[in-house]
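Case study 2.
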Amino acid sequence: MERIYRGVEKFRRDVFPEQREQFERLAAKKQNPYALFITCSDSRVHPNLFTQTEPGDIFLLRNAGNLVPAYGASSEGEGATIEYALAVLGIHHVVVCGHSHCGAMQGLLHPETACDLPAVSSWFKHAETTRRIVEKRHSNLTGDDLARAAAQENVLVQISNLLTHPCVASRYALGELQIHGWYYEIETGAVLEYSEDEGHFIDLSEPALPTESAQHPEGAASTGSPRNARRGRSVAVGARPRQSHRR
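Prediction:
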């Protein structure tokens, strides 16, 4: 804890005074984040760092394995956070982000490692679909390739779970919400997004060609997101990737 205490001291002494006006502005108005960001509790995953966002920019929901219990499931914390983000904060984008070297995915793939962890074992029921898909679709993979496939498949499964929530499904059906499936690779810094058109995850740093509607915007319906005007950046809505482990 000593390092954490020193960090608090440094923040109050050096960081806060330089950014006082920013924090005062944040406190003086209602929060207005760009997106609800659902990701893993893993301490190595730092969403504000790899998205280069500031306090107030993203509304975070974190848990082991970035799981989204289906609507009506026993876990209500995630549902309440999702509902608040959409109904109260009026957020128009949701990101579900998995990552490399995910301990939760390792536990899902090797349930014997969680046999003495009853709470963890119970939590993994929200990813049982992921386990079955990986078992059937990726039986030829091992090691890091299998872990990557599991983490990426899990992102899509959790998006499917997300769409069981009425506040999500209704706004999505009305075109008021966009859902993005991401995968963060810790060791390289790469961030990949699932493309329905391509059927797999695509590195966000790769150049993308504009779509026809982006090239000819007159009369084209607005998506509300520059990212969706780029080829291969379509919203993921639970479709299964043909090769989810590809980078």
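The mean pLDDT is 86.
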